[in-house]
Structure formats: structure tokens, C-alpha cells
Amino acid sequence: MFYEHQVQTNKRVELYNITTQVKSTIKDSGVKEGICHIFVPHTTAAVTINENADPAVKGDITNEMNKVIPFSDNYQHAEGNSAAHIKASLFGFSETVIIKNGNPVLGTWQDIYFAEFDGPRRRRFVVKVIEG
Amino acid sequence: MFYEHQVQTNKRVELYNITTQVKSTIKDSGVKEGICHIFVPHTTAAVTINENADPAVKGDITNEMNKVIPFSDNYQHAEGNSAAHIKASLFGFSETVIIKNGNPVLGTWQDIYFAEFDGPRRRRFVVKVIEG
Amino acid sequence: MFYEHQVQTNKRVELYNITTQVKSTIKDSGVKEGICHIFVPHTTAAVTINENADPAVKGDITNEMNKVIPFSDNYQHAEGNSAAHIKASLFGFSETVIIKNGNPVLGTWQDIYFAEFDGPRRRRFVVKVIEG
């Protein structure tokens, strides 16, 4: 079962919550036990998991990443978004979550985020649900 | 087949070897060919793979990460563990290893580590074994 | 279906394109719908996805990573390649791509790269294709 979703990000760098979309995709699939693979088909965005309670965590993550991988640093890529390419490779283009009793197995404080590093943009992510 | 394991980490930042637990989980599952997905349901810990021989490698990894993502850096999150949240997203919350002849396919020097970034704590990780 | 591939890297740090090998492996498997898991059985190399068009992106990624994680930084590991171990954990040892109609689902600008951090060397990566 293959699904495609769209997101409209709002900032240059942003963790955009996609947990609701992932959960409803698993529900739609009807799969009770298996894995759910989320894949981002871009090169300047990624997917990650992190805290769902205090929104300050998201800001700390994006601010610190902007400091560690600066927007400008004598990059050669003419488009000017090399920092976004680097951050995307560091965060990774996919997440796999386990499905149990029809729900993703997530920790109490975990939500799933589309990691925008070169927005705002219209983006998409794809999901594959495998029974097993 | 779904499994849950507990670990008691000993330091604030530590790579804790879970290879034995993963191997025995695969054995328990009886699966000979497939994949084994390891997932960490926390937001300040992760899972990674790295060297199993010289223990100095683990220290070099944790020391350097503590330097690249400092414990204090004007973070806004009141709990004071934003560095751990950032490191966890960088290392990632899951690993998937291939199962062949009933064993995980790992390189000669590879072991699997629970990456603690805000310990010491009682932690857990979950494992899903899929035949295929 | 399990496959093993070899690569000969050419530089100390290099993103080596393995997309063609991955695509032909999926074709060989005959699987039309499923997932393809790529795993690097080393501790100083990784696998990532990134831009396939402007080659300057690869150079920006490797140059910046060499700056963020310096080759020398009072590491204790006697082999002198701790930076490579750290970068490998940051990039990650596996990628999972979705298979649809017999092809990997990749974005327009995405290719799959073996990330060499301690080359040049003869390396290998393994691939598992799962139908589902």
C-alpha cells in the first residue's frame, strides 16, 4: 500500500508535524501489524522524530542546526541552498515506524516531523505500509 | 513479531551496546531471512552502529558530538536538554538490519548501540522482525 | 532476496553514486511493489541520498562535513580515523527506498550515494529487497 501526501511549509527552516497524516494513512491501510515507511523525495528536506510537547524544542533544533551548518560558507552550488542539502543528509530522508494494533509505536513525547530546510515550499512525502 | 527491551544507561552521553539483545531477539523470532527494525521511543536518545573493537572510538564520538552540539547554547527549552534532542535527531531513532541465515548482516567491526544523550536513565527500545 | 555489491572509492571523503547498482538490483529481484533496503557494513562509511544534477553539491557536503567534524581534534582512537566514524554515524548506515512498478520511488533530483569518509578503499554494500 503506497500513499502520497502534500505539505505546505511556512518558513525557511521548520519542523512541520505530519503525525496525524501518518496515523490516518496507517488507519486507511487497514494494516494492524507491520511497518510504515515514510520517505521524503526531496534533497533539501528530510523527516525526523522529536518532542511533541514544548514547541521550544523545535526552535532549538532548527536554530542550532542553522548555526552548525551556516546558510553561507563559501559553498560552490550556484542555487545558494547547499546548507539545506547538508542538513537533509544529516537528518535523513526516511523514517520507519512499527505498526502494532493498527497504530504506530511512538514514545509518549514523540511526534513525526517533515523537516523543511529550504522553504517555504509546497512539498510531498510518500508512505509505504507493509504487513508482517 | 514485536519485542521490547530495557536498558539502564550509566552516563549523561553514552553509546550502550545492544548487539547481544538484538541477536537474541532475532533468534527468538525464528526468522531466517528478513529484516530486523530497531526503534527508540524517546526524544533524547537514538540508535546507531559503530566500531566494536577499540572502545576509544565511542569516547571520540560522544566527545566530539558534545563539542559540535554544546550542552548550553541559549536554548529556550526549559528542561535544559535541548542538546540531547538535537543529537537524537542527528543520529536517528531507528536502524534496520538485514537478517540472513538467522543472523543480522553486520560488518566485521560493527556493533549496534543505544545512543544515550540525556542519561543516566532507564530506557527502552522496541524491535520488529519481518520475514521476507 | 539478498544482494552484495562492491565499490572502489577514489578519495578520502567522497559521495560515490550507486543509484544504477540499486536500480539494477531491484530489476534483478523481479519485485514490482515493496521496499529495498541498502546497508553499509562498515564503520567509516555510510549511505545517503542527495542531488543528482549539479556536482558542486557533493563537494559542498563533503567540504562542510570535513569542517564540522575535523580530521584531527584530540581523538584517542589510535587508527586516526575517528572523524570518519563520527561522520558515518551522522549520515547513517542504511537507506530504505520504496519500490513501485518495479522502480525505486526517488524524487526528480535524488540519487543514492555511498558516503566514503576514510578512503580511498575497496568497499561493499548489501541490499535486501522485500515484496509487499
Outline:
Chain A is α+β, with helices and mostly antiparallel strands. Chain A is built from three helices and eight strands, in the order E-E-H-E-E-H-H-E-E-E-E.
Protein model, in words:
3 copies of one chain form a homotrimer. Chain A is α+β, with helices and mostly antiparallel strands. Chain A has one domain (2-131): YjbQ-like (Jelly Rolls, Sandwich). Chain A is 26% helix and 38% strand. Chain A has helices at residues 19-29, 56-68, 82-91; strands at residues 2-8, 14-17, 34-39, 45-51, 94-100, 103-104, 110-116, 122-131. The radius of gyration of chain A is 15 Å and the shape is elongated. Chain A binds chain B through residues 33-35, 48-51, 54, 56-57, 59-61, 64-65, 67-68, 90-92, 95-98, 100, 105-110, 130, 132, and chain B through 2, 37, 39-43, 68-69, 73, 75-79, 82-83, 85-86, 88-90, 92-94, 96, 126, 128, 130-132. Chains A, B, C: This is Secondary thiamine-phosphate synthase enzyme. Chains A, B, C: InterPro entries: UPF0047_YjbQ-like, YjbQ-like_sf.
The CATH class of chain A is Mainly Beta
Query: Biggest sheet of chain A, open or closed, and with what strands and sense?
Result: 5 strands, antiparallel
- What share of residues of chain A is helical? 25-40%
- Overall structural class of chain A, as computed from helix and strand content, comes to alpha+beta
Helix count, DSSP H or I runs of 4 or more residues of chain A: 3
The assembly state of the depicted protein chains is homotrimer
CATH fold label of chain A: Jelly Rolls
Report the average pLDDT across residues of chain A.
97
